[in-house]
Amino acid sequence: MPVDNRLSRMLHVLIHMDRAKAPMTSETIASMLSTNPVVVRRTMAGLRTSGYVMSEKGHGGGWRLARPLSEISLLDVHHALGDPEMFSIGFARDHRGCLVEEAVNATISDALVDAQKMLLARFAEVKLSDIADDFDRRMGAISPVNPDGTSKTSDSGM
């Protein structure tokens, strides 16, 4: 079963959009994701309908955030993408009337429902700004320059 990576990809795009100085075109986003601009426009349409991004046509146009990252949760983006399936575990349906198969499927189903509830609750807690902050920490750990442009290795007089 193919993996649905739209959530991960759109979170990536939204954080880049937050950092961009200008709107990002579908072509730019498509290049970043190694996909087609039509796929980008189709995927971004759900985010636009939900009010998380907006698009501007014409020269200098493109996609930009309609809200700050601190107002968008992972759950918001998941919903805007059409609530894709969380798990790819399936059920055996080979033996109609087999009570063992029914018991196995019921147990797996109950576990998946519980796991999905927990995951969606966690998605609701995490804001995109939390992910962006994590990126900033990671970037700060490898960058020789402070956010204000000063060098991290400047001589402290010792």
Question: Which features does this protein show?
Answer:
single chain, 158 residues, mainly alpha, Arc Repressor Mutant, subunit A, two-stranded antiparallel sheet, 2 strands, extended, Tscrpt_reg_Rrf2, WH-like_DNA-bd_sf, Rrf2 family transcriptional regulator, WH_DNA-bd_sf
Q: What form results from the Cα inertia axes? A: extended
Beta-strand segment tally: 2
Q: SS-based structural class?
A: mainly alpha
Characterize the biggest β-sheet.
2 strands, antiparallel
Strand order of the largest sheet: 1-2
Name of the CATH architecture? Orthogonal Bundle
Number of helices: 6
Mean pLDDT, all residues: 90
Pfam family, one: Rrf2
Organism: Rhizobium alvei
Protein name: Rrf2 family transcriptional regulator
InterPro entries: Tscrpt_reg_Rrf2, WH-like_DNA-bd_sf, WH_DNA-bd_sf
In words, what does this structure look like?
By secondary structure, this protein is mainly α. It has one domain: Orthogonal Bundle (Arc Repressor Mutant, subunit A). 53% of the residues lie in helices and 5% in strands. A two-stranded antiparallel ribbon has the order 1-2. It starts with 5 loop residues before the first helix and ends in a 16-residue tail after the last helix.
Briefly, what is this?
This protein has 158 residues and is mostly helical. It contains six helices and two strands, in the order H-H-H-E-E-H-H-H. This is Rrf2 family transcriptional regulator.
